[in-house]
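Exercise 3.2. Students should predict the tertiary structure of the chain below and write it as structure tokens, then compare their answer with the key that follows.

Predict this chain's 3D structure.
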Amino acid sequence: MSWEGSEAAYTPTGLQLAERLEKLYLCTMSKQLASVLTTVNAPYSAQLDGAELAHCLSNFDLAKQFSGQVSSFFGEVPAAEQQAFAYEFGIALADLKSFASDFAKWSGQSYHLAS
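Answer key:
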């Protein structure tokens, strides 16, 4: 911090601004992740964390084992949050859409992202 005189204004450095932005980003992502996981896990005794859900969205056999959570993800989580989740876990949007389409065909459900 730099203080100049008695009426000094705080002037953050570039590094301090970057750290603040990172904290804000992590806080926002934490809230989004919590929202996604709360929605996906609510009715199920088997609770998935973010990495486990991401793995389910990349592995069809695993998705079948946790079909309720995957169905909740595609059917109840807003599309923008689905895309943000996928981005955070390194799942390409095209891959997520393809997976949603395949899962919809398997489950007999209709998902916005699959269309």
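Discussion points: Residues 32 and 81 are 7 Å apart (CA to CA). The helical segments are 14-41, 50-56, 60-65, 67-76, 79-88, 93-107.
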